[in-house]
Amino acid sequence: MIKAVLFDLDGTLLNRDLSVREFICDQYHRFYRFLGHISKEKYVSKFIELDCRGYVWKDKVYEQLVNEFNIHTITPEQLLEDYITQFKNSCVPYPNLIEMLEMLKDNNMKLGMITNGKGQFQMDNVVALGIEKYFDAILISEWEGCKKPEPQIFEKALRKLNVSASESLFVGDHPDNDVKAAENAGMKGIWKRDEYWGKIEADYIINDLSEIPIILKEAGKMESELLKIFDDKRNPIGVASREEVHKKGFWHETFQCWFVSKEEEKEYILLQKRSSQKKDYPNLLDITSAGHLLATETVQDGIREIKEEIGIDVSFNELISLGIFDYCVTREELIDKEIAHVFLYKSNHSLENFVLQEEEVSGMVKIELDAFYEFWLGKKEFVRIKGFDIDKDGNKVEINRLACKEDFVPHKNLYYETIIRWIYNAL
């Protein structure tokens, strides 16, 4: 089972050839008063020649440029500084980059990046592409003290992602530094074709980033969730992938279960803290357990979410049905229209009994139910949460603090008020 996909940066996610050409043209125009005695075509082509596809650091490149073109009014150091500070503004992504990353994250893939180069320079380029948020681990050779094709940097990345080599794929454009090095580390290699290298052998070969999810699906290593879809009157109208459901705004079914416990005559509501790995609302407090109902599932099958996410065995007969809530949220990137089947579970489990699914949940907290209700009615600005979080080393860290509304998944106030009233009626 593949749990993680790792990527090279330059030539794989970042179209370095186009980025370099765009940057060096811009640099020529920025410093035209110093470089005008050289034609732009000669300056650009010479830089690209000396750059050797990025394998020569630019201090050497600019020293040679200055000497060859008899540049006296600007120094190699000044040109290098411009490269370091301005290259990020010329970064060009390969087509389908964001769509591919989102699809992998939607399918709970862990994502990593291993790139050779200067630390801050490469990180600036990652940020410029707008992809930093998708990655669970980013390793840059200067900062790690080792580089591709050395196995140590691959092993470091796997440890950070908490996956084995056999559970991972590596995508890169360099046949030795990326593909063979990853395969030597025990991973499957995907070569992103670059005609410069001619014919290369690899486990998989792609021309476009959009092929990566296809490879995973065909290999049975990533399944796109198929959901039943409904019209506005809740009549079933077919099935669609989770991605299509959220893109086109189809009504679909979800399962929600709220845990309430009683301690010393006080009722508490239990909430999960969403994992930092989640694409939507990472690190925010949410429903005790919830998830989509697949096209092949009944409402009763929704109890699997409880066991998977928080490790508690519950039978459907132990749940109290609270009702069905039509939940609709529209954001720039999705339209979420849920037919939410909402349940209550009267829990006698201590928070210590909860075993969390790392990629989904990173903590559990409890809140006095009365205080929680007043909080969402606007009578309190803060509410006290108590529980635990799991740190990056897997240790439980106590939580005992005041929380504000920004700490919670931004369901509408009406949703919270309705659910809590339903809970009170069922207690």
What gyration radius follows from the Cα positions, in whole Å?
26 Å
Low-confidence stretches: none
CATH topology of the largest domain: Nucleoside Triphosphate Pyrophosphohydrolase
User: How many β-strand runs?
Assistant: 17
Seen as an oligomer or otherwise, the chain set is single chain
**CATH top-level class of the largest domain:** Alpha Beta
The tally of structural domains comes to 3
The CATH homologous superfamily of the largest domain is termed: Nucleoside Triphosphate Pyrophosphohydrolase
Beta-strand portion reads 25-35%
Provide the structure class.
alpha/beta
User: Can you summarize the main beta sheet?
Assistant: 11 strands, mixed
Measured distance between first and last alpha carbons: 43 Å
Helical proportion, percent range: 25-40%
> Mean pLDDT score, rounded?
93
CATH architecture annotation name of the largest domain: Alpha-Beta Complex
Protein name: HAD-IIIA family hydrolase
GO molecular function: hydrolase activity
Keywords: Hydrolase, Magnesium, Metal-binding
Organism: Heyndrickxia vini
